[in-house]
């Protein structure tokens, strides 16, 4: 068992992550993202503030990570949990998160959201209303979809859709 060398942390960079996790828990956000953040936070706390952390020299499970990516790409419209991915890969949640992030450069949840946004963009470009796009791409509600879309793309979904619809309307001078 690790032993923490400090009982109180002052001015830690982890306070932002702790605050975000607290808000997710109090607002009852999706389990996948909460659990992912919790496990990353625990790892960081152990790494930075405990006297010992065991480092395993394990080969990265590239085939399992590929299987998880394929699963996420095929099932992005469904509710996916970290338990689902862990079972699929045959790895502990912690090992899956660490290996996936190392291999892909982003966490499994971010990977899933990127797939969802990519597909949402295609649907919006076809003129499908944002409320339908949210449900077709696996977002829990339109608000979650709109906020995430704006954060990632820089435009609200309806604004993005209008860019493509306005190009087809003849301009009158």
Written overview of the protein:
This protein has 173 residues and is mostly helical. Among the domains are: 1-55, no CATH class; 111-166, Homeodomain-like (Arc Repressor Mutant, subunit A, Orthogonal Bundle), CATH 1.10.10. It is 64% helix and 0% strand. It contains nine helices and no strands. The mean pLDDT is 82.
Task: Briefly summarize what is shown.
This protein has 173 residues and is mostly helical. It is built from 9 helices and no strands.
CATH topology term of the domain at 111-166: Arc Repressor Mutant, subunit A
Looking at the overall shape, the CATH architecture of the domain at 111-166 is Orthogonal Bundle
The proportion of residues in beta strands is under 5%
Overall helicity: 55-70%
Number of helices: 9
Oligomer state of the chains in this structure: single chain
Q: Could you give the distance between the termini?
A: 74 Å
Order of SSEs: HHHHHHHHH
Computed structural class: mainly alpha
């Amino acid at each position: 068992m690790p032993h923490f060398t400090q009982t109180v942390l002052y001015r830690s960079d982890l306070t932002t992550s702790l605050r975000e996790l607290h808000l997710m828990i109090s607002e009852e956000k999706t389990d996948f993202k909460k659990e992912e953040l919790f496990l990353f936070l625990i790892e960081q706390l152990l790494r930075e503030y405990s006297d010992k952390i065991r480092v395993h020299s394990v080969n990265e499970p590239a085939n399992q990570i590929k299987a998880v990516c394929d699963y996420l790409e095929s099932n992005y419209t469904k509710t996916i949990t970290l338990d689902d991915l862990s079972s699929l890969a045959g790895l502990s949640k912690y090992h899956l998160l660490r290996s996936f992030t190392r291999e892909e450069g982003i966490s499994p949840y971010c990977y899933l959201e990127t797939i969802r946004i990519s597909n949402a963009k295609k649907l919006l470009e076809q003129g499908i209303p944002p409320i339908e796009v949210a449900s077709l791409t696996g977002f829990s509600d339109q608000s979650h979809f709109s906020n995430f879309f704006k954060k990632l793309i820089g435009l609200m979904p309806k604004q993005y859709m209008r860019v493509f619809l306005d190009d087809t309307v003849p301009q009158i001078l």
